[in-house]
Write a structure and sequence with these properties.
Largest sheet: 5 strands, antiparallel
Mean pLDDT: 86
Low-confidence stretches: 1-11
Number of helices: 5
Strand content: 15-25%
Order of helices and strands: HEHHEEHEEEEEEH
Helix content: 10-25%
Amino acid sequence: AVVGIGIFTKSRADGLQKLRTSTSTTLDDLDNENSGTTVFVKQSALLFGGGEDNVGTTSPAKEARLFEAPTVIRYESGQVLAPHYDANRSAETEDANRGGQTLATLLVYLNDVEEGGLTRFGKLPARTTTTSTTKHSDETSLTIQPTMGDALLFFPADADGNFDERTEHEGCPAVDEKWIARIWRHMNRVPPPFGLSEDALANV
């Protein structure tokens, strides 16, 4: 069974890598409680409610146990991430060793992107309000123009782990360089190497 899960996991990881032409690195060093990575994880945990310890006190570390280690992704001119889902219809089997189903995706845009690099949700309609998230008024799908400091939070599956096909999304071709930081929140504890170690969580 373990071998089977390993094959499924590698297959899915290889499939996702084929969809992207960007480069990325995982941030798993939380030795310094004041580092940018530690603060990012802590603030993300608080965004999700912070979790509670055994005596009812807010505990960011308890919530962060459900996170994959943060990833920073760089898109250079022409690089893309093809349409895909962050959740998995077979998460109970294929993602068992990385916390099960992906319940939430948090993206933080690290720089202003004037041209290209939109995040597009192809199965969701464009916003119709007067306040637009993008200057591209001809878009028929929901799109987000990357702006430094903005965060995008969406839920690829519901709280029970049910896959939501409406959340298919893509990183459109970059013209200007684009940098983002990403955290995936799973249904269960994400063990190392995918998740944060107990030593790292002690600083959250």
